[in-house]
């Protein structure tokens, strides 16, 4: 993962304002510019566009947008967990992906399209900096990934 955006929340802004930053990140990631790569000179100008952030970070080859790490700090453990959940709920449109379905037999079968979703990983700054956390790794349940979860129908 050559690109990881980091958003540190010191618990001084209201959760809606923090969640709005993820919408701004997604808008930034959507911007496309002309690609001046000589190898693509034979293509039509409309086909020679690339996401602007790709030009700043050319080593990023993963499909989709770069992930954002939300690190919350400066509050108690319960307040931080509640804050992470509030920001996740308010920014769900950015990370959840678009629900698509084909209506047949009036069922809820469907799938999610992740092309315009921003992957978000949320944790606390204290856990990220602690040496025991580094030894235990991410499997300990201290970081919460938003997006690309099981394909369930939207609630």
Low-confidence stretches: 135-140, 150-155
The amount of beta strand, in percent, is: 15-25%
Q: Topology as H/E string?
A: EHEEHEHHEEEHHE
Rounded Rg: 18 Å
The largest sheet has its strands arranged as 1-4-7-8
Helix content: 25-40%
Q: Structural class of the helices, strands and pairings?
A: alpha/beta
Number of helices: 6
The main pleated sheet reads as: 4 strands, mixed
Oligomer: single chain
Q: Tell me the total number of β-strands.
A: 8
Compute the separation of the termini in Å: 31 Å
Mean pLDDT figure: 80
Principal-axis shape equals globular
Task: Please give a quick description of this structure.
The protein is α/β, with parallel strands linked by helices. Helix content is 32%, strand content 19%.
Overview of the structural elements:
The structure is a single chain. The protein is α/β, with parallel strands linked by helices and 155 residues long. Helix content is 32%, strand content 19%. It has helices at residues 15-30, 52-56, 77-90, 92-95, 125-129, 131-136, and strands at residues 5-9, 32-34, 49-51, 68-72, 98-100, 111-113, 120-124, 144-146. The strands form 3 sheets. Strands 1-4-7-8 form a 4-stranded mixed β-sheet. A two-stranded antiparallel ribbon has the order 2-3. A two-stranded antiparallel ribbon has the order 5-6. The protein is globular, with a radius of gyration of 18 Å. The chain starts with a strand and ends in a 9-residue tail after the last strand. The relative contact order is 0.18.
């Amino acid at each position: 993962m050559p690109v990881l955006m980091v958003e540190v929340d010191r618990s001084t802004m209201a959760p809606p304002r923090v969640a709005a930053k993820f919408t701004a990140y997604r808008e930034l990631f959507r911007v496309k510019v002309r690609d001046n790569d000589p190898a693509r000179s034979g293509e039509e100008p409309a086909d020679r566009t690339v996401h602007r952030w790709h030009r700043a970070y050319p080593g990023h080859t993963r499909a989709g947008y770069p992930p954002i790490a939300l690190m919350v700090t400066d509050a108690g453990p319960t307040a931080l967990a509640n804050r992470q959940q509030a920001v996740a709920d308010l920014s769900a449109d950015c990370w959840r992906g678009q629900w698509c379905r084909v209506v047949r037999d009036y069922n809820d079968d469907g799938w999610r399209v992740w092309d315009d979703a921003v992957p978000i990983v949320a944790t606390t700054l204290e856990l990220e900096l602690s040496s025991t956390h580094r030894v235990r790794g991410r499997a300990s349940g201290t970081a919460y990934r938003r997006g690309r979860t099981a394909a369930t129908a939207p609630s």
